[in-house]
Design brief:
Layout: E1 2-5, H1 8-11, H2 26-31, E2 40-43, E3 48-53, E4 62-67, E5 73-78, H3 90-94, E6 109-110, E7 119-120, H4 123-141, E8 146-150, H5 156-169, E9 175-177, H6 184-194, E10 211-215, H7 219-222, H8 227-235, E11 239-243, E12 256-258, H9 265-278, H10 284-290, E13 291-292, H11 294-301, H12 306-313, H13 317-329, E14 333-337, H14 339-342, H15 347-360, E15 370-373, E16 392-393, E17 397-398, H16 402-412, H17 426-434, E18 440-444, H18 448-451, H19 455-464, E19 467-472, E20 484-487, E21 496-499, E22 504-508, H20 521-531, H21 543-554, H22 566-572, E23 575-576, E24 603-604, E25 623-628, H23 644-649, E26 655-657, E27 668-673, E28 676-684, E29 692-696, E30 725-731
Parallel strand pairs: 8-9, 8-18, 10-11, 10-14, 11-12, 13-24, 14-15, 18-19, 19-20, 25-29, 26-28
Antiparallel strand pairs: 1-2, 3-4, 4-5, 6-7, 6-20, 16-17, 21-22, 22-23, 25-30, 27-28, 27-30
Helix pairs in contact: 5-20, 5-21, 6-15, 9-12, 9-13, 9-15, 12-13, 17-19
């Protein structure tokens, strides 16, 4: 689109206004020299609208990318897709700007030592060096000395290739992905209870519920467009319960807001179940027909009376009783949760305690009644289904199951003895890098220098590697520490599928060709495989070819994609798996027949025992630090910290603290944990517990929340305990400065996105009730 102003003389010609018709302030605007919108031309000849989906969160809003006559993305329009109905959040509105951003990497970067500066090199030189280092390290130390870390924002075709590339081309057991930092606690709980890893209900079921419970999810900021379903339920009279230490935007509207102490979720939900049992509100018929383990769960719940749980959680006893009655008495009730109850050393138990409550009340597998988990990344669901997770093979198969191994080896054309065993998790791989058990690494679509906990350990682990290559389209903080950086495409420059939080598979379409010098992740992995001698197993010209093999590899599994085709996705707007045949409609709601995916068809209830967080409180560290997202930014911020409107909206992190600590808004507050300390501007609000401090985590050191968090893991899911660690707060003299994002050699940080980073004050909204005014 081009915009041309008319002649200056025309610009000064005012059309008289009828005061009775003109909006207030219009005359003042014009008298001040403003240019009316009708005095600009907009030539849209040749513009194309490409239907696709947002690249960010697990809602996966539909959008149109606007493409000019030269084939370049230049704008966005909301799409009337049934996921989002014309709505986009601030990130979605600005996402298109990254496609042709001046910070884009357009040539491979390389150095043979971290003491050297990067230089731009040819693709052949970069790939030859990468392959030579892979071969050297594996020749000297064994195949497992080289690892691969993928990402849950990749298309499913690429996540499939990540797992296959690690096991067939690298022949290494060490592959995992950054979804390990996101959804694996929910995945572990779902598999234990239901035998399947996905949400049980579609978003649309929220509109039908009578009671909606949201635990550990700041929906209004992390999944803004999902709030339309919450408001729709409220409009028809549904009650809302929010469980969160902070009074978030969504919690302010709730009938009951449970502001529990971080790290006490399972004690709370087990106590709610205690009340449900005591008041005779369980669905005994449903339990008898559809569940196992109820007597054991019931006995454990008896150990958590409201008085005990209230003391653990730091909440009134009455709230536990209120939640039990509201949820159990509702004709139809639903529970949804996210990272707030999953990012814990007891994350799996937290999720299981919610499942126990839903099952005991019979709120499973019905329109308006069920259980769901909200994925954080765009492909948080699809990203763990097809093989890049350390213990899984395509189709959600277990890598330890002999029959599953045989099936995949037959599809991949390798001997079973050639398929490596299960590897370790993402954080465990960093520890192995510290110990020099893993000496080489390729990273794809991740930024651990910001996203992993305990930054000091992460930096030490990466620095201990002899070789590190990173795929990205911007130079992330992690890529800036690598030996080789390979420039790859954005989501708008390739096609592929993602599975959103409902397990609805949607199709992303290519809107423009990548810049010269940029390659797709698919091309790079296939080319590396060819140079490593496995090219015959990676003869994929494009995403479509990969998807056809993925469909075959998933056929007959719990995660069955076989009946999903690109053509069907274009026609329908999305299909929920499992979908075993091309005439199957998909499965938007699970368990409608009362059966799960366990061989006996029943829900396997699990006993949950609460234990304290791993970082103990004492006189030196008496408070809880918890972390999370803010509406303007996404994950490590490598994309959103470069987009001007988002930087202007939220230029820096802050420390959200209660007024009882005596700070004024904007004053420097030092947060100290056993890992270190950083200084943030105080955002003083009554919307947080007095014993808790909150910091958003999208920024790198010296303003990185994850320089302070603990790298303790859930023993089953191996997810880090981001949501609670012991801390103290102190007055400080100076706020730590926010660094500009890294850029390639010869570039400077895009100035239009950096102006607001020096603003010392925290944002004024939407943090909630009692937030101090800026002055």
């Amino acid at each position: 689109m081009t915009a041309e102003p008319r002649a200056a003389a025309d610009r000064r010609t005012f059309i008289p206004l009828d005061p009775s018709l003109a909006p207030p302030g219009t005359r003042a605007f014009r008298d001040a020299g403003g240019i009316p919108a009708d005095q600009w031309h907009a030539d849209q000849n040749g513009e194309t609208l490409v239907p696709t989906h947002c690249c960010f969160c697990g809602v996966q809003c539909g959008m149109y990318l606007r493409v000019d006559r030269g084939g370049k993305v230049f704008g966005v329009e909301p799409r009337n897709h049934d996921i989002n109905r014309m709505r986009l959040c601030p990130k979605g509105i600005n996402a298109y700007q990254q496609v042709n951003h001046p910070d884009r990497l357009t040539a491979p970067l390389m150095r043979r030592s971290r003491d050297e500066e990067f230089r731009e090199v040819s693709w052949d030189e970069a790939l030859d060096f990468t392959v030579s280092e892979i071969k050297r390290i594996q020749r000297n130390y064994g195949n497992d000395a080289f690892g691969l870390l993928g990402g849950a924002s990749l298309f499913s075709e690429k996540t499939y290739l990540v797992g296959k590339f690690a096991r067939v081309a690298l022949k290494s057991r060490h592959v995992d992905y950054n979804g390990r930092l996101c959804m694996v606690s929910a995945a572990g709980a779902n598999k234990l209870a239901f035998g399947i890893d996905r949400a049980g209900n579609p978003f649309s079921d929220i509109l039908l519920t009578d009671c909606l419970l949201i635990a550990g999810s700041n929906v209004g900021e992390c999944f803004p467009v999902m709030t339309q379903y919450v408001w729709g339920a409220r409009d028809r009279g549904a009650s809302l319960i929010v469980v969160d230490p902070r009074e978030t935007a969504i919690a302010r509207t709730a009938d009951i807001h449970v502001a529990l102490k971080p790290g006490t979720d399972s004690a709370f939900f087990t106590s709610v179940l205690n009340v449900v049992i005591a008041e005779g509100l369980t669905d005994e018929h449903y339990l008898a027909a559809h569940a196992t383990g109820w007597e054991e769960v019931k006995a454990k719940a008896a150990e958590y009376p409201p008085s005990r749980a209230a003391a653990i959680c730091g909440i009134p006893v009455e709230q536990i009783v209120q939640v039990a009655r509201a949820f159990a008495r509702a004709p139809k009730a639903m529970a949804w949760h996210a990272r707030g109850i999953e990012h814990h050393s007891q994350g799996v138990e937290n999720c299981l305690s919610v499942i126990n409550l839903c099952t005991a009340t019979g709120h499973i597998g019905k329109p308006g009644a069920g259980y769901g988990t909200i994925t954080g990344q765009g492909n948080g669901q699809g990203g763990r289904e097809h093989g890049q997770k350390s213990d899984l093979l395509p189709g959600g198969r277990s890598i330890t199951n002999p029959e599953h191994r045989r099936q995949i080896c037959e599809i991949w054309g390798i001997e079973e003895s050639e398929l490596p065993p299960a590897g370790t998790s993402m954080m465990e791989m960093v520890w192995q890098m510290q110990r020099r058990e893993i000496r080489g690494l390729i990273g794809i679509c991740n930024n651990p220098f910001v996203s992993l906990p305990n930054y000091g350990v992460v930096k030490e682990g990466y620095n201990a590697t002899e070789f590190h290559a990173q795929f990205d389209f911007f130079l992330s903080e992690t890529a800036a520490n690598a030996h080789v950086v390979l420039p790859v495409t954005t989501w708008a420059e390739d096609e592929g599928v993602m599975a959103n939080a409902e397990a609805r598979v949607v199709k992303h379409n290519k809107a423009q060709d990548p810049p010269p010098g940029v390659r797709t992740d698919t091309w790079v992995m296939c080319e590396l495989a060819r140079r490593l001698g496995a090219g015959d197993k990676f003869a994929f010209p494009d995403s479509r070819a990969v998807f056809e093999e993925l469909r075959t590899a998933s056929a007959g599994t719990v995660n069955d994609y076989y009946g999903i085709t690109y053509e069907r996705l274009e026609e329908t707007g999305g299909i929920a798996w499992p979908c075993p045949s091309t005439d199957h409609p998909g499965t938007p709601r699970l368990f409608e027949d009362g059966k799960t995916y366990h061989p006996d068809g029943k829900i396997h209830l699990q006993v949950v025992e609460w234990h304290p967080p791993m970082d103990p409180y004492d006189d030196e560290f008496p408070m809880s630090l918890t972390t999370g997202r803010t509406v303007a930014h996404f994950l490590s911020g490598n994309q959103t910290r470069r987009l001007g409107a988002l930087v202007e909206q939220t230029p820096r992190p802050w420390a959200e603290i209660h007024p009882s600590h005596g700070f004024r808004n904007g004053e420097p507050v030092r947060i100290v944990t056993r890992r270190g300390s950083e200084v943030f501007p105080a955002l003083v609000t009554e919307a947080i517990r007095p014993d808790t401090v909150f910091v958003p985590y999208h920024w790198p050191v010296p303003t990185a929340a994850n320089a302070l968090t603990i790298d303790a893991l859930d023993p089953r899911s191996k997810i880090p305990e981001y949501k609670v660690c012991a801390c103290r707060i102190e007055h400080a003299d100076r706020i730590d400065e926010v660094p500009a994002p890294p850029v390639a050699p010869g570039h400077v940080a895009y100035p239009e996105t950096q102006v607001s980073r020096t603003d010392p004050l925290p944002p004024t909204s939407p943090q909630g009730r009692g937030t101090s005014e800026r002055s």
